[in-house]
Design goal:
The complex is a heterodimer of chains A (309) and B (256). Chain A folds into 2 domains: 2-216, P-loop containing nucleotide triphosphate hydrolases (Rossmann fold, 3-Layer(aba) Sandwich); 226-293, Alpha-Beta Plaits (2-Layer Sandwich), CATH 3.30.70. Chain A has 11 helices and 16 strands. In chain A, strand 7 (154-158), helix 6 and strand 8 (185-189) form a beta-alpha-beta unit. Chain A is elongated and about 75 Å long. Chain A is of the alpha/beta class. With 256 residues, chain B is mostly helical. Chain B has one domain (6-250). Chain B has 10 helices and no strands. Chain B has helices spanning 6-22, 24-46, 58-89, 92-97, 102-128, 139-163, 167-183, 196-202, 206-219, 226-250. The mean pLDDT of chain B is 92. The chains are: A alpha/beta (309), B mainly alpha (256). Chain A binds chain B through residues 13-14, 48, 51-55, 71-74, 76-77, 79, 81, 83, 85-92, 96, 100-101, 103-108, 146, and chain B through 1-2, 5-8, 10-12, 14-15, 18-19, 22-23, 89-91, 93-101, 251, 255-256.
Chain lengths: 309, 256
């Protein structure tokens, strides 16, 4: 069963801007899913449609087998969303806000769960302060608590760690991972790609309103990510046209003065030797060589850059 | 599942009630003080004069009008301030994301408006009563006009809050629509004192019926025909509540 199935979702704003173009996406139940994309790619529009703060122009969304766009009340009870923008009610304390939020989802007061959330999100000390007095990071953690207070089965976190310090971020993720291990499906957007790579088992990349990659993290890094042979010379490398021609088969590029050549893998064998010999013939024997494996950030930049070229 | 989210509605009502109780100096004490100041000013300005056309002294005439004016303004303020603050501070998204239907949202918001109006009205009555020999003549009229007026203004506040993008937009509605209509509705004078043209224009002012009807609950006399006034108030209140419900349902100015 899938947690979320999005089919041919389109959004055209009143000003004519098409934010989403036939977006189709499947989020399996129980996964930790990363939705990545550059600024303005359409991630927040997609999340806002799911959260019912933006209307879809066309398409369908199913949450745990229920049509989210027509069975809104059911869907909302099972969905928790952390909005990207910090928002807080200045009249109330974090504890009151959590009780109100839970009540609005039709659930009875649960002091133990509220305390648990406040503790996990390191807000216990500030639980009875007026939210105005909280720091930016605390307000963002309060948003996370609000999204979780009704114990949703699917949680959407729209850049939840922006402005949260490294240590607290780690503890926040430990908590979310714990919830995920207990069966909560998590959909995350973040600009911290190393965070996404470490946490998520599935990924979708969205650019200019279109999904350009959607697969498991392992297969994305296995299929799309490549490794490079990097050759360092005494002087920073500047490739002549003739050298580029000679190395054409290896997509030569210079990164920080180091020559990088794409390696290809087939049936457990790589063309390392061929690449090394080609570099040697074109530029001479390098001072030192090493293999560099692309990470999610490299793949992300390559895919989104290619898409905008 | 289409059953009503009763706990959600109750919680939203509690939230909207606690919000105005948190700032009671501004929401309850200040209107009472303003009303007392009006009374002092008009008491010395008008002396022991009677209201022309109505067999009642000016001071007794003024108190119910001031009460109703404060109730209407506070009912409007409760919903409008909540909506505009929510939009400016972006907290309205929590309401949009919660499983609260338009009907439930309206019940919660308007109930809180009615409660605030009656709390303010009661405080005013308690404060002003020692200064006059005002009697309650028709409780049902006080309740009918009080509740309808609060629902009418609460709905208007919701619509104004949905429409406004800034505090300036909201103050435009308050200062250029609500204030003139309440001040020119017969709070401070009997419409019989007005020239014929203004009397005719006044018949189109819903605030006139609300204030005059409410006042009749105390002094048993007024400027409007009770049957006509009740019909007008009912039609206007139901229409405005329905309009607020419809706009909420469509996400007017709330959802892109």
């Amino acid at each position: 069963m899938t947690a979320l199935t999005i089919k041919d979702l389109n959004k055209v704003y009143e000003n004519g801007k098409q934010a989403l173009q036939n977006v189709s996406l499947t989020v399996p139940k129980g996964v930790f899913f990363a939705l990545l994309g550059p600024n303005g790619a359409g991630k927040s529009t997609l999340i806002n449609i799911l959260a019912d703060t933006v209307r879809a122009s066309s398409g369908s969304v199913s949450l745990l087998g229920h049509d989210l766009l027509t069975e809104r009340a059911w869907g909302k009870r099972h969905l928790g969303v952390v909005p990207q923008e910090i928002a807080f009610d200045p009249f109330f304390s974090p504890r009151e806000i959590l009780h109100f939020t839970r009540g609005m989802y039709g659930q009875k007061r649960d002091e133990a769960w509220v305390n648990d959330l406040l503790e996990h999100l390191e807000l216990s000390e500030h639980a009875n302060k007026i939210t105005r007095q909280l720091s930016g990071g605390m307000k963002r953690r309060l948003l996370v608590a609000q999204a979780l207070v009704h114990r949703p089965k699917v949680v959407i976190l729209d850049e939840p760690t922006a402005g949260v310090d490294v240590e607290l971020r780690k503890r926040l993720w430990d908590f979310i991972r714990e919830l995920n291990a207990q069966g909560t499906t998590v959909l995350l957007t973040t600009h911290y790609l190393e965070e996404a790579q470490e946490l998520c088992d599935h990924i979708a990349i969205i650019n200019q309103g279109q999904v350009i990659a959607a697969q498991s993290m392992q297969s994305l890094l296995g299929d799309v990510a490549s490794s490079s042979l990097c050759c360092r010379y005494e002087q920073p490398v500047k490739l002549l046209e003739s050298q580029k021609q000679a190395l054409q088969a290896f997509a030569p590029r210079v990164c920080d003065g180091v020559l990088c050549l794409n390696l290809q893998h087939q049936e457990g064998q790589s063309n390392f030797d061929a690449a090394y010999q080609a570099a040697r013939q074109a530029l001479g024997v390098p001072l030192d060589t090493y293999i560099r494996q692309e990470n999610l950030e490299d793949v992300f930049l390559r895919l989104t850059h290619k898409d905008t070229r | 599942m289409s059953s009503m989210n009763i706990l959600g509605t109750w919680t939203l009502f509690q939230r909207e009630t606690k919000r105005f109780m948190r700032v009671k100096m501004q929401t309850i004490v200040a209107p009472a003080l303003t009303a007392v100041l009006y009374l002092i000013v008009f008491h010395y300005a008008m002396g022991e004069r009677q209201v022309p056309g109505l067999d009642v002294d000016y001071f007794t005439f003024l108190i119910p009008g001031l009460m109703m004016m404060a109730m209407l303004q506070n009912a409007f303020a409760n919903t409008s301030s909540s909506m505009i603050m929510g939009k400016i501070m972006n907290t309205h998204v929590f309401l949009m994301m919660a499983p609260i239907s338009p009907t439930e949202a309206l019940i919660a918001f308007l109930s809180a408006s009615v409660l605030r109006a009656f709390v303010v009205g009661s405080v005013l009555l308690l404060v002003l009563l020692p200064f006059s020999d005002l009697q309650i003549t028709h409780v049902w009229m006080i309740l009918f006009y009080g509740v309808c007026g609060s629902l009418f203004m609460g709905s208007l506040g919701l619509i104004a809050g949905m429409w406004s993008k800034t505090f300036d937009d909201m103050s435009m509605v308050t200062n250029f629509v609500i204030m003139p209509l309440t001040f020119l509705s017969g709070v401070f004078y009997s419409v019989q004192q007005l020239p014929p043209l203004w009397q005719s224009l006044n018949e189109w002012n819903p605030f006139f019926y609300l204030i005059d009807g409410f006042r009749q609950g105390f002094i048993a006399t007024g400027d409007s025909d009770p049957v006509h006034a009740i019909a007008m108030v009912l039609v206007l209140t139901v229409s405005l509540v329905m309009l607020a419900w419809y706009l909420w349902r469509t996400g007017w100015k709330l959802k892109d």
